[in-house]
Amino acid sequence: MNGASGSEPARPAGMAAARRAVGSLAPRERALLPARAAYRRAWMRRGQDITRAMSRSSCLVVAPHPDDETLGCGVAIMRKREAGTQVTVVIVSDGAAAEPAPVPPPELVRLRKEETRRAVSRLGLRPADLRFLDVPDTEVAQHVDQVADQLAALITELQPEQLLIPTSCEGHPDHDATNAAARQAALRAGFTGEVLEYGVWMWTHWPWTRGYGTEGYSARRLLRDPLDRIREVRPLLVGAKGYRSRQAYALAAHGSQVGGALPPSLIAATKTSYELYLEAGALAHLNFGPPADSPSSEAQPPADLPAQPQPPSTDVPAGEQGGRPGWVNGP
Ligand SMILES: [Zn+2]
Predict the structure, then answer these.
(1) Most CB within 10 Å of its CB: which of 94, 193, 205, 269?
(2) Helix, strand, or coil here: 92?
């Protein structure tokens, strides 16, 4: 996940500002929880149950950080493994920028790998089913081309029937860049299977993603926008009843991350009766643009991909540090 607790040690002033911004989010997050839950339940009622098909499809889970695999896809992974279906999890970044860091970065990387091995074991994976790409945390957007090559090689090696990737509108630069890299990898590998998106950071802004922070608290924004979100896309549902407590047990293995500051809306999304997925690109109309103050010479995506966000100065949702507008000001 690497957001509310993330930072870049080289820029302490920005880090402190990011901590203050994140801290200011908590009351609003809590106030919006009931509305988010109600809208999510309404969205799920429009959904299509894919539980059986999901259990049978071998897959490659692409996670930007250690713990995203459990937060976003924990139920699907457990169901697949119970059905004897092959699952491989690949962790893109090394997780070194998480904050508060209980140990120095090199040791934190080792700790988070060990935590991830324990977590995916609790989800039913074998040690060989877990891969690490070790891209520097917070810098995935600078390595999209390299990550796409590495993921394409994995797709070619493993021949999965399905890719599970973060949504295109997570808002966290590492997550959005991972989406871009995975889609590019699918093209390079000639992948013809199913690509589904899962949400992690999406749940901290959905259903008010469009115009987040750039529009006020009008009745239209608070009431009409969520109805548009519910109508425009049908989510794909994987039954989660009976699996959430084991998912929480797996998440607890990420002990360096779950001690404090996971956003409550994100945690709430791991307690619903279904785990939600989306057809690849279904939320592309909600994608965040690149930050206004980002350099233009580096980290450009491949020419056939839409513009992707630039890396942040700290590993928090980009708008909270001014990278993209609105994460602090909008609902
Ligand atoms: Zn993450």
Answers:
(1) 205
(2) strand
Distance from Cα 7 to the centre of ligand 1, integer Å: 13
Residue 35 lies in a domain: yes
pLDDT digits (tens, 9 = 90+) for 67-107: 999 999 999 999 999 999 999 999 999 999 887 777 888 89
How much distance in Å is there from the Cα of 99 to the middle of ligand 1?
13
Tell me if 295 is assigned to some domain. Answer: no
Say if 26 falls within a structural domain.
yes
Centroid of ligand 1 to alpha carbon of 63 (angstroms) = 7
CB neighbours of 146 closer than 8 A, spacing ≥ 6? 135
The answer to whether position 291 is within a domain reads: no
Q: How far apart are CA 85 and CA 144, in angstroms?
A: 29
* CATH number of the domain encompassing residue 40: 3.40.50.10320
Q: What is the dihedral of CA 245, 271, 212, 292, to 10 degrees?
A: 10
Look up the domain containing 50 and give its range: 12-286
Q: What pLDDT, in 10s, does the model give residues 231-290?
A: 999 999 999 999 999 999 999 999 888 766 688 888 999 999 999 999 999 999 999 877
Number of structural domains in the chain = 1
- Cα of 6 vs centre of ligand 1, distance in Å, is 10
